[in-house]
Structure formats: C-alpha cells, structure tokens
C-alpha cells in the first residue's frame, strides 16, 4: 500500500534585525538542527543558504561576500547566492532560502 | 654644396619616422617641420593608455626638443600649413609667411570621421585623436558619470575601457551586427562582446545614433529607432578619413588619400607623402607598422635613390584593452574557391582562433584569447610561406596540448618582431649589442619595439636572453590583480592615488572592479599600504581572519597565537597563557614551529575575552603580515655566538610587528653561521659573522625551499634594522598580493633591489624609511582595541538561535 506523502509546510521565522548583520557580511543562524547562513549584500538586499560548505563543511557565513556570491573561507569554493550553485563545480550546490525584510526584521522562509 | 631643403608637413608618427630614417643617410638635407599640434612628436598609439590611467602624457613623448636641436631640425610646433604653392615650391603658414623647399614631405595623418547626426557641436562631445582630445576628455570624465561611445571599432573599445577606468558607466553603440567588423568575423565579434560586457561595458549593436541632445551640453543621445539614453559624454569613434585637403587644393592627385607610387612620391616629382594620408594602389592604412615601412622607402627616395620599393603592407591589429588578448591580421574573410578556414573555438574560455588558408598559404588570421601565435602567422602571411607540410600544427603542436613557443632563434634577421612598429629581429639584436641593453624598456627607447601593444614582449625577452646569457634578468611579469579587475596592481594603485580613493567601496564604485569578492583582501591591503593613516577599513572587504584577528580552523573554531618576541618568554607570561588555556577549555596547547605557543580550537565568541585575559599583543599568526622573528640563544649563552641574536631579533620584531604585507613575512636572527634559527630560509634572515652581520632576503623552507639572497653585509645591528626596514617597505609597495618574497626577490632581482633601496643619490632610501615610519605609526594592536571596543555588536557572535 502506498503511503501518502504529507506536504511540508513553509513557515516564516524571525532571524534578528537588519542591524545584526553588517553590510557585506554573513552570520550563522540555527533553527532546530539546521544551520543557515544569512547574508546582507552590498546592495542592501539579503540572501540565505545552507551554512555548511558542500566541499568540507566550511562555515559559509564567515566567507567573503562578492556582488552575489560568497567565497568559502576554508578552500575558496565560490557559491552563487541566488541559485546556491558552486561556481565552476556546477554539479554541487547548497539550498537557498527566501528572505524577506519587514520593519527592519529579517524573516526567513523554511520548511516547518 | 648647398644643402637641400626638406620641409615636412605634420610632426606626427609618419613624418618623424621618415625624418629619423633620413638622418641615417650620409648627407641629410636641412629639415624644417611644421606640426599642427603644440608638442614635440609623441606616440599617438599610447593615448589609449593615457586615457586608461596606465601612462601619463609625459611618458608618451618620443622625441625631445633636444633631439630636434641636436639634428638641427627646425620645429614649428602649433603652426598650421594652409597652402602649398607648387609652382614656387613654397608652403604657406597660417600667418601668411612662406617657406621654400627643394623637396616636400606631406604627413598630415587623418581626421576623425563624423557620421551625419545632429548636435555634434555640444559640450561633452569628443573625438579621440590627439593629446588635447584626451586631456579634455579626462577632465570631463572626472566630473561626469555616463558615457556613450559611438563606434565599436578598435579605437572605440579602447576608449570605452579607458573611460570605465576613469569611473564612467559606458555604453558602446555600434552600427554593425558585431564589434570590430573590420578585423573580426561574427563569431569572434560575439565572443569579444561577452568579454567587453564582463568589464561592465554595455554594448548595443545594429544601432545608429541620430541626434545628440542637450541644452549646450550633452544630456542624451537618440537612436534611429527613437530610443533615448541619458549620457554626459558622447565620444565619436566612427572611423578616420585621410587628411588630404592641403594636397587636393595644391593640385596633387588625390582619391581617398594622396596617391603615391612605389617610392612614396606623389603626382609631383619633388613631393612625397607618407602615413595615414596616403593611398597606395587603392589601399589606405590606419596603423603604424605600414607607416614605418613607408618611412624607410620615402627616406631612400628623398635621398635620391630608388633602391627601395614599397609594395603595400599586411595590416595586423592588436586590441590594447587590458584583459583582452586579440590580434587580427591579413585577409580573414577570404572566400575564394581555394580558400579554407581552420578554426578552434572555446567561447566559454573566451578563446577563438581562425586561420584562413588560400592554397597552402596563410591569407589571414584572427586570434582571440590566446595570441602567442600572432608573430609567426604574420610572418607566414608576409612571406607567403607554404604551410602545407605543417598544417596539422598551425594552431597547436602535434599533441594538441600547448601552443608551441615561438622559435625566435630560428627567425631571420629581416623578420619582424614588433608588428606595431615594424621592427625586425636584426635591428633589435643590433641595438642590444651596441647599446648594451638589458631590458624591454631600453630596447623600446632605442628601437621603438614593444612600445605599443606589447604582444612582442615575450619574443624580445628571448632575444635578450640569447644575447645576455646568464646575465639576463627576466622582466617583471605583469599580472592582473583579479579576473574581475582586469587591471594590474600598478594601474589600480595609480587610480587609487589620483582619485584619492580610500575605501574598498569607493574603488568598487570607480568601476575598476567587478566585485567578484576574490580581490577584496588584496585591494584592502593596497589601500592600507597607500593610505596608512586615513584609509577606511571596511571589514566586509577582509578575510574572516582579519575580521576577528584569529586563524580559522577546519571546524570553524579559531586559533590564538600571542606574540612572543624573538621566542623569548617568561614564567609569568607562561602562567597567564596556561590559565587562559584552562579557563576557555582550549583543545590543544601547541609549541609552534615559529617559536611561540598556539591555543587551538577557540570559539569565535570567546576571542575578545581571551585577548583581554592574556593581555599580550597579537602575534598576527592569522594575517598576511609580519609573523615571527625566530632567534637562537646567541652570544649571551652559546659558546659559538658572535652576535647578540636574541636582542636583535626582539628589536626587529618590535619594530615590524603589526605591519601588513603582500604575503606573510617570517624572519630570523642567528648568532653565527651555524644558523640555528634557520636564517638562510627566511623572508628576511640575519646571520652574525665575525665583526658584523649578514642580511639575507627571499629565503623559504615551505612549499618552496630557497636559500635567501645576500642583501648586504653590515657592521652593527642598527644597520641591519635599517636594511631590513628598507627591504620590507619596498616589498610592501611592490609585491603582488599573495606573492611571498621567495618569488618577489627573484622576480625583481637582488641587484635591482639593492640599487633601489641603497642608492642614496636617488633619495629613495630615505623616502622608503619615511613611508615605513608613517605606516608603523598607524599600527594599533587589534586585540587590545577590539577586546574593548568591537567594530560591530555582532563582530564575534552568531544570530539568535531559534528552537
Ligand atoms: C602553527 C604552525 C605549525 C606548528 O604547529 O608549528 C603553522 C600552522 C599553519 N600554517 Fe604554517 N605553521 C607554522 C609554521 C610554518 C613554517 C615554519 C616557520 O615559520 O618557521 C613554515 C615554513 C616557512 C615558510 O613560511 O616559508 C610554514 C609554512 C606554511 C605554508 C607554506 C607557505 C609557502 O608559501 O611556502 C602555509 C600555506 C600558506 O601560507 O599559504 C602555511 C599555513 C599554515 C596555516 C595557517 C594554514 C591555514 O592557512 O590555516 C596553519 C594554521 C594552523 C592553525 O589552524 O592554527 N604554513 N608554516 C606554525 C606557526 C608558526 C608561528 O608561530 O606563527
Ligand atoms: C587612440 C589611438 C590609438 C591607436 N592605436 C593604434 C595601435 O594600437 N596600433 C597602430 O598601429 N595604430 C594605432 N593608432 C593609429 C596610429 O596612431 C596612426 O596610424 C599614426 O599615428 C598615423 O601617423 P601619421 O603620421 O600618418 O598621422 P598622425 O600621427 O596623426 O600625424 C599627423 C600630424 O600632422 C599634423 N597636421 C595635419 N595637418 C597639418 C597641417 N596642415 N599643418 C601642420 N600640421 C598638420 C597633425 O596635427 C598631426 O600631428 C591609434 C590611434 C589613436 C588615435
Ligand atoms: S603543515 Fe602547516 S598547513 Fe599543513 S597541516 Fe600542518 S599546520 Fe596545516
Ligand atoms: S570547505 Fe568550503 S571550500 Fe573547502
């Protein structure tokens, strides 16, 4: 017998305020057992991806942020923050999360 | 015998090149030159570099006033000739004054072509032909933001890149379906477009400008489609037209250009013409190389000999845009019956190569992305070489792996090495011998070779190497700072200084960078080195280590290495380190290879607390900065010691601590040549000898093992400090980012380093010291400062954890 798949719900979680992340940097944010790296881009927008680098788990939130990518601090893999794809290693990627700013608060959409 | 009188109209590249050839003849005539521009002769080609901040106007002058005087050439700069009276053999200047000649040389070049459009008289509309154009454009660019370049040929693209370097947002508007259609086919044009766009330049193809709009000053341009785009500057680079007005009015035979025969003589037997203003069998040329060939023939003819014949030239063009390598030559779009194309394309890598064969001879070629084969292909075209036997390896070697090196040794003396300036191998080899030249610059000065597009640089290096053997010192290689910058460190340095840019953000806004992120630390270092006192430190532009002053580990924790000067510590200091290690549950306490103690596995949020508890300055083990100074016990204890290495090492470490450098700098001081502190393999290593000290630089024992080069032998410790300081500052200013001294020292050469940092007459040693002290006085211990006052409330912490 087939077991019906239950669709996971998307939930909004608060991840601090805009001032918590200096412009051009990232910070790590943990929800349940999932770590997510949130970035405050130079143009003022925000982006979020899984925190651990697909190479050897480097902390992406500590990476250098380019216009729309982050460079892992351990061995320099570069990850496109819009798609989560590792640039130059197109087979590898991290998950991305939609971010919304409301009244200065960072709201993150994750599967509950 | 009365000297013959030669008048030259046009003090440009062709006119003066011909004069230079004439001066080589046994009894040159008396020469008078009229130049429409108020300068001595300069290298027009390099105006692109001036616009792109890569050269100053002073650097492009070719012949000084002294040169004209020395050869008794009467120069009338800024004097326009308005008429030629052939019957009386006179030229007429603006003032009405007349000058008599026996022979006349016309070298009036060309004028920019202005396509039919309205509004070209507005302020902010430019052409790009001479120094005045360039300088006024530079001034205008400094005050304005947007530019439209009309015409996507060679000149337009070079200008677009230049204006981008000057901080403008540039759109190139091109009439045709692909860029540089005179030199490229559609495939190459499309790849080039992508490369140009990567530089942040917008390209619009199939587009005509109908009107330039604005009240007095340019505000927008309108296309034939009716579309408008706003702009503050419009540059017209739509081509050139031979400047034939004078000749035409004088009654000489003129079509598109002044018609000349095999000896560069016009329709009048005493009147010759060279350069862009001439037409030879239906051809006109807008490049220097053909002009140099014409100059030799004209000089011969003016001297009364007919032994040289001009038979036309094979044009070869190189785009001088930093970051793009592109050469096109000959007839690349032949489509006759016996024509074939051999192509190789890798658009993603920006590589495209095409050779057009007619029969078994090369008719033309396009090289984009990799241009090493250019000189050889050009030679084959010129000579009509039968390439049938090695067809398979025209673009690649037999294995299809690497492009083959160009066998300069196998070249004939009369083969061309520098295509731009048409200089042969023989001329260069001769000049190396006669003038004892040792570098590209010297060769450029004497022969003009390698002064424009520089693609012959590697060939010239080979010639130098062959001639000089072991005494040859390789020229510094020039690297772009980053793929997104497409600019060398030197060029960026100049922009930063000229425009007083003091933060990463302002450099980025200047348009010099593509903001890929990779070059952020390098640019940050450059800024801090140029403006030690008032550079705006932006943390987002620095590596995580420099944001938290500790070295990141594989698990995301950090290591803490306090400074232990010269490896000398005390019970009290050891006790404090031990206490801290316990208090913060440090995972490992390790004695490092650099004679200090590493606390490993520290959490980011504990860092400021650890620093406060330690109260020892940062060891900068995490930074591209001065690291350790290893010492041995030295003359105080050791039975062999001849110098107090410990004291000198500690003094050195105190003097240099906290300074950032292109890459890490490790030092050592040993008390005798037994060398227990391993001084020979340090970036700066000092060894005590009987009665003095030796200073070595450029040593290494990491990924590379290299014994340092002896910089100097001195008598006292103070002199060691002095020499080390000058070297360190010189490295800070001239090292490429991430270039260790073991690469830097061989690249520059120890002789050159000595010459620069010790030559008192130049004043440079003192200036190096001055700049060092300025940099040092700006150093603050980050641990002290930021344990008290973090730069951001979350400098060391994650976001709140939600459960
Ligand atoms: C701690 C130490 C090893 C030890 O346990 O003894 C060490 C540890 C590291 N070295 Fe080293 N090196 C240490 C002495 C050396 C030495 C010996 C010396 O300095 O006398 C060398 C050879 C000398 C040299 O530098 O030329 C050395 C050559 C390297 C290299 C290769 C550099 C090169 O271009 O050849 C690297 C990689 C790099 O710099 O890119 C490196 C990089 C590293 C890094 C920083 C790797 C990194 O980027 O994260 C290691 C940090 C571990 C950590 O998490 O803290 N380490 N490393 C030593 C610290 C010395 C100190 O007190 O500051
Ligand atoms: C920005 C730029 C980049 C270039 N890059 C390259 C390149 O990479 N490679 C290459 O091969 N070529 C390049 N060229 C083209 C090259 O500079 C010309 O082909 C070359 O300068 C032509 O030399 P010429 O002597 O014929 O003309 P010019 O050098 O223009 O000299 C003509 C001179 O005659 C003067 N003159 C004109 N009429 C009169 C008069 N009636 N009385 C007195 N004086 C008069 C003018 O003022 C001018 O100084 C470039 C040109 C420009 C503008
Ligand atoms: S040798 Fe240096 S870089 Fe390599 S693992 Fe050891 S500490 Fe790390
Ligand atoms: S862990 Fe990210 S690049 Fe290696």
What key phrases describe this protein's structure?
heterodimer; A: 112 residues; mainly beta; Rieske Iron-sulfur Protein; four-stranded antiparallel beta sheet; three-stranded antiparallel beta sheet; disordered N terminus; B: 803 residues; alpha/beta; FAD/NAD(P)-binding domain; five-stranded parallel beta sheet; 30% helix; 20% strand; elongated; binds siroheme; binds flavin-adenine dinucleotide; binds iron/sulfur cluster; binds FE2/S2 (inorganic) cluster
Helix tally of chain A? 0
Q: Give the radius of gyration of chain B.
A: 32 Å
Count of DSSP H/I helices of chain B: 24
Q: Give the overall shape of chain A.
A: globular
Largest sheet of chain A: 4 strands, antiparallel
CATH structural fold name of chain A: Rieske Iron-sulfur Protein
Question: How many structurally independent domains of chain A?
Answer: 1
Which structural class is indicated by helix and strand composition of chain A? mainly beta
Strand content of chain A: 35-45%
């Amino acid at each position: 017998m087939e077991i019906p798949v239950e669709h996971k719900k998307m939930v909004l979680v608060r991840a601090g305020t805009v001032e918590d992340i200096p412009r051009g940097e990232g910070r790590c944010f943990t929800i349940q057992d999932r770590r997510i790296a949130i970035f405050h881009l130079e143009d003022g927008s925000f982006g979020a991806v899984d925190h651990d680098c697909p190479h050897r788990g480097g902390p992406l939130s500590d990476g250098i942020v380019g216009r729309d990518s982050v460079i892992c601090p351990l061995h320099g893999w570069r990850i496109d923050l819009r798609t989560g794809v590792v640039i130059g290693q197109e087979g590898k990627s991290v998950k991305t999360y939609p971010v919304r700013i409301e009244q200065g608060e960072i709201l993150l959409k994750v599967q509950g | 015998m009365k000297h013959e009188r030669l008048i030259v109209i046009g003090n440009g590249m062709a006119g003066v090149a011909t004069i230079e050839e004439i001066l080589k003849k046994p009894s040159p005539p008396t020469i008078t030159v009229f130049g429409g521009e108020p300068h001595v002769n300069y290298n027009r080609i390099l105006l692109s570099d001036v616009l792109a901040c890569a050269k100053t106007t002073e650097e492009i002058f070719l012949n000084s006033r002294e040169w004209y005087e020395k050869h008794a050439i009467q120069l009338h700069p800024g004097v326009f000739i308005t008429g030629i009276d052939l019957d009386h053999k006179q030229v007429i200047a603006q003032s009405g004054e007349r000058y008599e000649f026996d022979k006349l040389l016309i070298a009036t070049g060309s004028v920019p072509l202005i396509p039919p459009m309205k509004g070209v008289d507005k302020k902010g509309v430019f052409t790009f032909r001479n120094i005045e154009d360039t300088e006024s454009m530079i001034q205008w660019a400094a005050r304005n933001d947007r530019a439209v370049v009309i015409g996507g040929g060679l000149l337009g693209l070079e200008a677009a890149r230049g204006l981008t370097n000057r901080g403008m947002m540039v759109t190139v508007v091109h009439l045709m379906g692909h860029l540089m259609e005179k030199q490229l086919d559609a495939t190459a044009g499309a790849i080039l477009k992508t490369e140009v766009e990567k530089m942040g330049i917008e390209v619009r193809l199939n587009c005509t400008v109908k009107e330039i709009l604005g009240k007095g000053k340019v505000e927008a341009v309108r296309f034939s489609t009716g579309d408008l785009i706003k702009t503050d500057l419009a540059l017209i680079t739509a081509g050139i037209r031979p400047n034939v007005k004078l000749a035409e009015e004088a009654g000489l035979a003129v079509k598109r250009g002044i018609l000349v025969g095999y000896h560069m003589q016009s329709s009048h037997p005493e009147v010759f013409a060279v350069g862009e203003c001439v037409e030879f069998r239906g051809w006109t040329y807008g490049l220097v190389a053909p002009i140099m060939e014409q100059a030799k023939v004209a000089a011969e003819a003016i001297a009364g000999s007919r032994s040289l014949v001009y038979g036309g030239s094979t044009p070869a063009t190189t785009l001088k845009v930093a970051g793009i390598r592109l050469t096109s030559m000959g007839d690349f779009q032949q489509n006759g019956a016996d024509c074939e194309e051999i192509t190789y394309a890798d658009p993603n890598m920006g590589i495209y190569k095409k050779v057009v064969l007619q029969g078994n001879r090369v008719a033309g070629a396009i090289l984009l992305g990799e241009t090493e084969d250019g000189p050889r292909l050009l030679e084959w075209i010129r000579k009509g070489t039968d390439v049938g036997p090695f067809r398979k390896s025209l673009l690649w070697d037999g294995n299809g792996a690497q492009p083959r090196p160009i066998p300069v040794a196998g070249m004939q003396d009369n083969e061309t090495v520098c295509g731009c300036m048409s200089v042969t191998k023989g001329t260069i080899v001769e000049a190396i011998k006669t003038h004892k030249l040792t570098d590209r610059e010297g060769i450029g000065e004497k022969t003009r070779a390698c002064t424009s597009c520089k693609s012959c640089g590697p060939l010239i290096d080979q010639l130098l190497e062959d001639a000089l053997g072991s005494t040859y010192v390789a020229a510094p290689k020039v690297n772009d700072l980053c793929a997104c910058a497409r600019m060398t460190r030197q060029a960026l340095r100049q922009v930063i200084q000229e425009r007083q840019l003091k933060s990463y953000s302002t450099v980025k806004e200047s348009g010099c960078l593509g903001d890929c992120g990779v070059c952020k630390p390098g640019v940050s270092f450059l800024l801090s080195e140029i403006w030690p006192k008032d550079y705006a430190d932006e943390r987002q532009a620095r590596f995580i280590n420099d944001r938290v002053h500790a070295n990141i580990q594989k698990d995301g924790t950090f290591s803490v290495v306090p400074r232990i000067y010269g490896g000398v510590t005390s019970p009290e200091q050891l006790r404090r380190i031990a206490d801290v290690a316990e208090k913060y549950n440090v995972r490992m306490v390790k004695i490092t290879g650099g004679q200090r103690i590493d606390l490993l596995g520290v959490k980011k949020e504990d860092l400021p607390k650890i620093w406060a508890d330690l109260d020892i300055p940062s060891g900068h083990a995490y930074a591209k900065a001065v690291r350790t100074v290893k010492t041995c016990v030295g003359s105080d204890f050791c039975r062999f010691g001849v110098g107090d290495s410990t004291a000198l090492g500690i003094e050195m470490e105190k003097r240099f601590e906290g300074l950032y450098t292109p890459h890490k700098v490790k030092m050592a001081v040993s008390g005798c040549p037994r060398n227990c502190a391993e001084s020979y393999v340090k970036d700066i290593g000092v060894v005590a000898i009987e009665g003095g000290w030796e200073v070595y630089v450029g040593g290494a024992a990491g990924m590379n093992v290299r014994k340092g080069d002896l910089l100097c032998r001195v008598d006292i410790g103070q002199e060691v400090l002095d020499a080390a300081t000058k070297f360190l500052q010189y490295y800070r200013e001239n090292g490429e980012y991430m270039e260790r001294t073991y690469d830097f020292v061989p690249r520059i050469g120890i002789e050159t380093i000595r010459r620069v940092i010790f030559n008192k007459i130049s004043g440079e040693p003192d200036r190096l010291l001055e700049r060092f002290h300025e940099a040092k006085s700006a150093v603050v211990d980050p641990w002290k400062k930021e344990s008290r006052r973090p730069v951001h409330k979350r400098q060391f912490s994650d976001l709140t954890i939600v459960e």
